[in-house]
Amino acid sequence: MSVRAGTYSIVARDPVSGELGVAVQSHWFSVGSLVTWAEPGVGAVATQALANPRYGPDGLALLREGLAADEVVKRLTEADDGRDERQLGVVDASGNGATYTGSGCLDWAGGLSGPGFAAQGNILVGDETVAALATTFTATDGRPLAERLLECLAAAQAAGGDRRGQQSAALLVVEKDGGYAGLSDTLVDLRVDDHPEPIEELRRLYGIHESLFGRTPRDRWIEVADELAAELAQRLARLGYDEELPVAFARWSGNENLEERVDGIEHIDPVVLRALREAG
Q1: Do 104 and 85 touch, CB atoms closer than 8 A?
Q2: DSSP 3-state assignment of 40?
Q3: What stretch of H or E contains 88?
Q4: DSSP per residue over 2-14, as a string?
Q5: pLDDT category, 1, cuts 50, 70, 90?
Q6: Which residues pair with 24 in a beta bridge?
Q7: What is the pTM of this model?
C-alpha cells in the first residue's frame, strides 16, 4: 500500500540524552499515523511523498542490526520498485543522518542532512522550508529535543511550508525507560490529525504534556516546611481533601494526573505547587 503524502519532516537525535525523534507537518489527514517511526537506542525514520509505510518498521529493523543511516536508505530504496516517488529520512543511534528524494517526487522536493538530523520535504513552496528545518535544529542545540523539533516545524512553516497549506502535524520522541513511570520508552507522542493551524495546536498539546509529565530538576523543588505545609493543607481542604496532608496531597495529585511530578510530601515540584494554588 502506498499513500501520497506531501509533507515536510525532520528526524533527529539528541547528542547528550540520546533521545530520538520525528516531527512532521502536512496538508494531509493524520500524517502522524504514517510518517513517524522511532525506537530508543536504534534510530528514527520518516517515510513520505508516495509513502511506503514498510520503510518504517523495515528501516528500524535494519538500524537494529547496526547499519548506518545511509546504508539503511540505500537498502530500502534499492529494494523498492517505487523508489522514484518515495521520500525518506533516517537518523541512526550514533546521530548520523541520511535523506533520500526520488526523481519522481512532486516539486519542490529535496532534503538536507547533517550531524544528528535529516530533513526533507515535498510539494513545498521552495527549498527554504527544508533549509529552515536544518538551520533551526542546529541553532537550538542544548534545548530538549521535543522543543527543538517543534521549533523546526514552526520555522519551516514560516519559510513557506507545504504549498497546499496545513492540515495535520505530529511529534514523536523516544528514550529507553524515559516515559511514564520509567516503564515506557515514549517521552512524547502527540498528533494533530485535522486542524487549520496544526503546529500551533501541537504546541498547545505539548504544553499540557509538559505540565503533567515534564521533569523539573530536583534542586528546584521546594522544601515543604511548616508554613508551606499549612498552606497546602488549607488549600487541599478547600478542595475537599481533608485527610492528613500526605494522604490528601497524594489523592489530589493523582486525581489531577500529576503523579509523575510527585515524590512524597517533603519537597514539592513548583509546577505542582502552582497548579494547587491556581485550583484552590
Answers
A1: yes
A2: coil
A3: strand 86-92
A4: -EEE-EEEEEEE-
A5: very low
A6: 9, 170
A7: 0.92
Cell (9 digits) for 215: 521533569
- Domains of the chain and CATH, by start: 3-213 (3.60.20.10), 219-279 (no CATH)
Structural element, H or E, at residue 253? helix 245-255
Find, among 160, 177, 150, the residue nearest to 6 by Cα: 160
3 state SS of 140:
coil
Spatial distance between the Cα atoms of 256 and 260, rounded to a whole number of angstroms = 11
Burial class (CB in 10 A: 0-12, 13-18, 19+), 199: buried
| H-only helix segments in 79-196 | 128-139, 145-158
Confidence of residue 280 (pLDDT cuts 50, 70, 90): confident
C-alpha cell at 178: 524515559
Average pLDDT over residues 146-166: 96
Whole-number mean pLDDT of the chain? 95
Spatial distance between the Cα atoms of 13 and 215, rounded to a whole number of angstroms: 19
pLDDT in tens, 230-279: 999 999 999 999 999 999 999 999 999 999 999 999 999 999 999 999 99
Q: Which amino acid is at 170?
A: A
**Quick one: cell of 169?**
502535524
Residue pair 95/145 in contact (Cβ under 8 Å)? The answer is no
Q: Check if the beta carbon of residue 62 is closer than 8 Å to that of residue 72.
A: yes
